[in-house]
Structure to design on (847 residues):
């Protein structure tokens, strides 16, 4: 059925393309970057913009920065971005969030590859290893800080990470890389770009990695509970020039991973996932503007070794149409519509499904008032229609499919005023309202009976969950000290989060037993929370060969639990679990064929659920050092030695497994 | 202390004076690079090797100096993205009779109106480094690179010479 939907969408795309005058091309990031001398992005408004002019708090990580970081994982790279929190639970699993509120299975950061969601809707989480992208094929990683669901839809509430890969039409990328090192680390990847005749360009990428899990030094997790993380992925990206200037881009991917996860709370369990995706995008310039039609489908198969083994299959199909056009010389508009269908089996019985359809309309208006003042406003309205079909557990609470016959309508918005009084100064005042939808599991993807002595209690979904709303205000200032080749950025932000969804707590019943139903537990809207913070970033160059950067982000969180809610028991004690500070100091150096980079990452004190006692336990402030030394030969070969967590053999970065020092040797050849 | 400060200022001034000629050439090369790359965003624009007419006023030393700097930057051929530009000096009064050029680079200080009129008659896109050229409508495009790349397109002039730009490019520039 879903395949049928996808094929129908692809056929519709072809039909739409045929109806339009031939005229459009996808964005040539490389040429635009070379023209303007800075990175180009579409992640702020959907319109191509220079990174320094995008009306969003955004940091772009370039391909060169990725390569020179020496990191081998996306969380490791993102950790270097100002204000990003990363919880490294195991050698394979990390949770990432923007400016606090990071948690196990962090649901607030929307992650995309070329605009395709790789955030997993079943749990509302990003499992980074499942992202079918090798670092060598990434052109840039765009990190938007703050809500941006007015452009991307639900769950872009703390921010957005949009991973932009090279376009095979414009970027003939060919790289093979092999790495090996301590902790049994092994990885390899191949990126190959090729032409199929004059009109078709393609990039094929394959890669895989494995390493030893970090050792357990405490009673939990036990050695037999731990499994070495490993992953493999492949993707194919094809751009077809169907007419003189008409283009179709098709992307397909596959990934297969295993990692130790803290998804079940304090304890560790192994999770295995397989993902597949297919995507088709048509772009065309018409008299009505630049029109893009897109359809994609993601399929996830996930197996968790909890509760005797749980299997989920989640399929999401998305079709969208947008028109980007300019009116006069100063006004740019984007109008868009999107439909998505999302479905998940109800585990572990697997005889029922929970699903929803989302219909959304969105718009953006960018007005260049004059050469110093720009305003941007964007709005999106999503209507989510829930559904459930199939039987329930015997005597289950909420055991009525009619409870799922419900619509959730939510509005997202972004508004920014940017003022550039001089060529060196930019002030930006922004407002954003983001919407976090309930995940499919929260809506009923798990119905699990628990024997409690003589009675049975059920974990069930909650179709009455309200979306969480994040409102963010931010004042940003950037100054370019061109004479000394340095830049300074200061941000002040205030965030208000309403109706936060909590985990279940087996310490308090959400449903009391009756004559016909069991008692049970479910996720509920349990608290509001406020965050205030400040961020300072600085970059510069001492010499053309030697650069530096530093950032520091301070946050203060105040939770306001609803009556009777124990935020700790429900895994949402953000006031305690958010560090008050995090920051980085880094340098880069290049001389001839040599290049060296180092980054010191600091995280302040915080508390987290202990893996043995389940109590909130202090995690002391720590600093971790990563570094890389590389040598480029004349024939395109790069040899490098890189390491992470270099300051100690074993470091307690979370309340779980201690992060271990790792050193890697790598060799790569580009052609 | 006061003497040391004066000495430092003198040294700084000397350094700036020494650097000045180099800066002039560097800016011309940057402007040329932006102009050449911008041409690649023209619908049905030139591809491969293209000749850029460098328009100058022989009576104005600044215009001549800019022409010389641009021609020096072009050399035997200047690669700007998918384009390779070769240069051809053209006196401002000779634009109407110019042949074999695909675009014009207008140096500062020439008679923009006259050059613009000749360019329109020949359907040639004219690009200038002086903002006054594009503001006056003499040039279809103005480019500057200091302190950062800035591109302005005069829509009426561009339309008059039959130049239209790709959508993504239009979203990222100033239009007047």
């Amino acid at each position: 059925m879903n395949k049928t939907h996808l094929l129908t969408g692809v056929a519709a795309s072809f039909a739409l393309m045929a109806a339009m005058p031939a005229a459009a091309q996808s964005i040539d990031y490389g040429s635009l970057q070379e023209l303007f001398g800075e990175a180009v992005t579409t992640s702020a408004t959907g319109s191509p913009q220079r990174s320094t002019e995008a009306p969003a708090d955004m940091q772009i990580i370039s391909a060169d920065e990725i390569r020179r970081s020496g990191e081998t994982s996306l969380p490791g790279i993102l950790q270097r971005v100002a204000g990003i929190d990363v919880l490294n639970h195991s050698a394979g699993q990390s949770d990432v969030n923007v400016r606090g509120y990071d948690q196990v299975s962090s649901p607030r950061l929307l992650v995309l590859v070329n605009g395709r969601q790789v955030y997993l809707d079943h749990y509302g989480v990003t499992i980074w290893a499942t992202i079918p992208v090798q670092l060598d094929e990434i052109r840039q990683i765009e990190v938007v800080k703050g809500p941006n669901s007015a452009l991307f839809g639900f769950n872009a509430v703390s921010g957005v990470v949009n991973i932009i890969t090279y376009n095979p039409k414009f970027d003939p990328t060919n790289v093979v890389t092999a790495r090996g090192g301590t902790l049994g680390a092994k990885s390899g990847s191949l990126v190959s770009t090729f032409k199929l005749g004059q009109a078709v360009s393609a990039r094929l990428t394959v890669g895989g990695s494995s390493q030893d899990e970090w050792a357990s030094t405490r009673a939990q997790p036990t050695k037999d509970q731990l499994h070495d993380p490993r992953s493999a992925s492949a993707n194919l990206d094809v751009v077809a020039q169907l007419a003189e200037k008409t283009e179709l881009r098709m992307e397909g991917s596959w990934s297969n991973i295993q990692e130790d996860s803290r998804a079940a709370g304090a304890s560790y369990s192994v999770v295995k996932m397989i993902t597949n995706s297919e995507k088709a995008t048509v772009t065309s310039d018409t008299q009505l503007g630049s029109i893009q039609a897109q359809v994609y489908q993601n399929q996830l198969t996930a197996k968790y070794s909890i509760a005797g083994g749980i299997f989920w299959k989640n399929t999401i199909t998305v079709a969208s149409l947008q028109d980007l056009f300019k009116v006069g010389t100063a006004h740019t508009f984007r109008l868009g519509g999107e439909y998505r269908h999302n479905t998940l089996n109800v585990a572990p019985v697997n005889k029922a499904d929970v699903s929803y359809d989302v219909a959304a309309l969105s718009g953006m208006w960018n007005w260049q008032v004059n050469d110093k003042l720009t305003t941007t406003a964007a709005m999106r309205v999503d209507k989510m229609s829930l559904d459930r079909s199939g039987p329930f557990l015997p005597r289950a609470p909420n055991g009525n499919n009619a409870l799922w016959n419900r619509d959730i309508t939510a509005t997202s918005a972004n508004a920014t005023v940017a003022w550039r009084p001089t060529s060196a100064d930019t002030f930006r005042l922004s407002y954003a309202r983001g919407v976090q939808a309930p995940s499919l599991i929260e809506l009923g993807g798990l119905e699990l009976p628990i024997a409690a002595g003589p009675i049975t209690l059920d974990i069930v979904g909650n179709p009455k969950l309200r979306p969480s709303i994040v409102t963010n205000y931010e004042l940003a200032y950037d100054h370019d000290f061109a004479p000394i080749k340095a830049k300074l950025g200061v941000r002040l932000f205030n965030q208000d989060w309403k109706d936060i969804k909590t985990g279940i707590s087996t310490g308090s019943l959400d449903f009391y037993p009756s004559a016909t139903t069991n008692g049970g537990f479910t996720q509920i809207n349990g608290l509001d929370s406020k965050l205030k913070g400040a961020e300072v970033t600085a970059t510069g160059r001492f010499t053309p060969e030697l650069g530096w950067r530093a950032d520091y982000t301070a946050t203060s969180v105040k939770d306001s639990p609803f009556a009777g809610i124990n935020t700790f028991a429900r895994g949402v004690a953000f006031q305690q679990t958010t560090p008050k500070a995090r920051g980085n100091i880094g340098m880069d150096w290049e001389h001839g064929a040599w290049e060296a980079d180092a980054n010191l990452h600091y995280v302040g004190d915080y508390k987290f659920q202990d893996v043995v006692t389940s109590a909130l336990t202090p995690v002391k402030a720590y600093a971790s050092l990563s570094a890389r030394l590389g040598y480029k030969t004349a024939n395109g070969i790069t040899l490098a030695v890189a390491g992470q967590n270099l300051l100690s053999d074993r470091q307690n970065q979370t309340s779980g497994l201690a992060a271990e020092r790792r050193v890697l040797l790598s060799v790569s050849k580009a052609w | 202390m006061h003497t040391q400060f004066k000495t430092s200022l003198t040294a700084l001034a000397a350094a700036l004076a020494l650097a000045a000629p180099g800066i002039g050439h560097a800016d011309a090369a940057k402007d040329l690079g932006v102009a050449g790359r911008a041409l690649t965003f023209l619908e049905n624009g030139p591809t491969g090797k293209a000749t850029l007419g460098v328009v100058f006023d022989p009576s104005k030393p600044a215009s001549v100096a800019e022409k010389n700097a641009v021609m020096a930057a072009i050399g035997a051929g200047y690669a700007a993205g998918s384009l390779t530009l070769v240069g051809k000096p053209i006196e401002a009064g000779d634009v109407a009779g110019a042949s074999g050029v695909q675009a014009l680079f207008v140096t500062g200080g020439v008679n923009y109106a006259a050059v613009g009129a000749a360019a329109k008659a020949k359907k040639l896109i004219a690009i200038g480094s002086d903002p006054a050229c594009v503001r006056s409508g003499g040039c279809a495009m103005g480019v500057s690179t200091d302190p950062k790349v800035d591109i302005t397109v005069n829509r009426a002039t561009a339309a008059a010479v039959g130049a239209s730009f790709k959508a993504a490019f239009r979203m990222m520039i100033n239009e007047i």
In short: The helical segments of chain B are 2-39, 61-74, 112-121, 131-136, 155-160, 167-170. The domain at 21-175 of chain B is CATH 3.40.50.2300 (Rossmann fold). Confidence is low (pLDDT under 50) at residues 12-26 of chain B.
